[in-house]
Amino acid sequence: MVVIDEKTMLPPPPAYSLPRTNPNIPTPLPVPESLHPPPFSAPYRTLATLSDLPSHLLLHVVHRTFPQAPDKSYNKVERQRKTLRWLTASLRLVNRTFYIACMHVLRSTFLPSYTSLIRPPYTSDPFPLQTPPGSVGTALNRSRETVVLDLFIALKVHDDVFADESELHLGQPEAFRDLFDLMQPRARLDDLLRAYLAPTRVNLSAYSVTFAPRRVGVIGPSRRTIVDVERAKDERLEVAAKRLARKLQEYLAARC
Questions:
Q1: Sheet containing 208-212: which strands, arranged edge to edge?
Q2: Residue that wins the pLDDT comparison between 216 and 17
Q3: How confident is the model at residue 129 (pLDDT cuts 50, 70, 90)?
Q4: Which long-range contacts (CB under 8 A, 24 or more apart) does 94-98 make?
Q5: Contact 182, 213 (CB under 8 A)
Q6: What is the pTM of this model?
Q7: Residue 61 in 3-state DSSP?
Q8: Longest CA pairwise span in the chain (Å)
Q9: What is the mean pLDDT of residues 205-222?
Q10: Is residue 109 predicted with pLDDT exceeding 80?
Q11: Can you give the chain as a three-state secondary structure string?
Q12: Contacts 24+ apart (CB under 8 A), 84-89
């Protein structure tokens, strides 16, 4: 049993809000508002994800999805082809960040193969580096041929994997023929036409190009051919595009 001496019991200290009544004790200076401790409740933050990584780190992550060390349990080349197909069919569809990283790998991988299939006298430039002087709008900055390259990649990765999985796979020669006999020269001609007309500040977002071995033309907003020119079978696309650009300029000037 503990005996508490009443003389040793002291009154509780005064509240901090009460003024001091002892004149011998100086009154403390007020604490500035800026020195008060911060509140305990922090603002809500969204959790970081893999997509929040800087682009160069995310690109490194994508590269590391390919087989790194040799393994006798599988063929390394076949595993690489399956990884390329996975990038095309799955990973690049996650979001825009992964799309950019995956397409960087896919386009750099398949560009040499794509370029080797361009048939003379056709030319290719799926990645125009500079915007033509005086161009306006974003439509000029999009290369039509880049779309063809992406279609080629999608076709190529699936064809390679199917060929690895079965000896009975005969490939898709008709699809590749359509790409390089029609779609690639038409897209290249479209890009050339927009580049040649850029200094005149003509908005071509509502126009499209028609292509045939002996004739090329332009379809207007009314969905009919408004101008066309003949071309020789072995004529370079640049030559036909310049003639078509001059004729389209004359047509647009007459309507103004």
A1: 208-212, 215-219, 225-230
A2: 216
A3: low
A4: 94/51, 95/51, 97/51, 97/55, 97/58, 98/51, 98/58, 98/62
A5: no
A6: 0.76
A7: helix
A8: 119
A9: 92
A10: yes
A11: CCCCCHHHCCCCCCCCCCCCCCCCCCCCCCCCHHHCCCCCCCCCCCCCCHHHCCHHHHHHHHHCCCCCCCCCCCCHHHHHHHHHHHHHHCHHHCCHHHHHHHHHHHHHHHHHHHHHCCCCCCCCCCCCCCCCCCCCCCHHHCCHHHHHHHHHHHHHHHHHHHHHHCCCCCCCHHHHHHHHHHHHHHHHHHHHHHHHHHHHCCCCCCCEEEEECCEEEEECCCCCEEEEEECCCCCCHHHHHHHHHHHHHHHHHHHC
A12: 84/109, 84/157, 84/160, 85/157, 85/158, 85/160, 85/161, 87/62, 88/153, 88/154, 88/157, 88/158, 89/157
Query: What tokens does 18 get?
Result: 């009460």
Residue 212: phi and psi, rounded to 5, are: -145, 160
Cα-based torsion angle of the residue sequence 20, 25, 31, 36 in order, rounded to the nearest 10 degrees: -80
Question: Six-digit token pair at 122?
Answer: 């056709």
